Amino acid sequence: MADTAQPDFDRIGTDTDGATDEAKPRKIRRLAIIGGVGALLLSAASYGGAMFFGLFSDDAPAASAPPVYFDLPEMTVNLSSIDQRPQYLRAKISLEMSDEKTRAAVEQVLPRVLDAFQVYLRELRSTDLEGSAGIYRLKEELVRRVNLAIHPAEINAVVFKEIIVQ
Q1: Is 97 exposed, middle or buried (0-12, 13-18, 19+ CB in 10 A)?
Q2: pLDDT digits (tens, 9 = 90+) for 94-119
Q3: pTM, two decimal places
Q4: Which domain of life does the UniProt lineage start with (predicted)?
């Protein structure tokens, strides 16, 4: 057993191992500095993005004013029909808007708004008004027609107080 090689304890730490031990703290410091700079850049970019999109605005959220409603006169129109059987639509409609300026704009062109409604409603068939999808499409089209008539002002919605198809 005398032939077995004994480790040379005098040479431990004098090889390249010593250079590796000194390089480890440098690498750790370098990684820490790079990581810190990266984290700083990431947080600065996040803050800049939040400022750009207005997440940190100093303006207090404005209290929204209650909507303004404008009642249109009750409308009764005959609907288009294939079998020539008369069918009628009676509707009580109110327009929802955000302010009194829009209400004044509607009042100025009220005959034009009523004409647009009459022309459109007379072309409808009773099948066009079936179900909630039909009523929804009707509302959207009436909003579009009012907004065209009062441009550049806009209303928010058409509210049906009553709608009857006979």
Answers
A1: buried
A2: 999 998 999 999 999 999 999 999 99
A3: 0.60
A4: Bacteria
Euclidean distance between CA atoms 130 and 165, whole angstroms: 10
Query: Which residues are 157's β-sheet partners?
Result: 96
User: Residue for token digits 């997440």?
Assistant: 55
Look-up of token digits 């069918």: 87
Distance of CA 165 to the CA centre of its chain: 35
**Which residues, at least 6 apart from 107, have a Cβ–Cβ distance to it below 8 Å?**
70
3-state class (DSSP) for residue 88: strand
Q: How far apart are the C-alpha atoms of 121 and 150, rounded to whole Å?
A: 19
The rounded distance, in Å, linking the Cα atoms of 80 and 85 is: 9
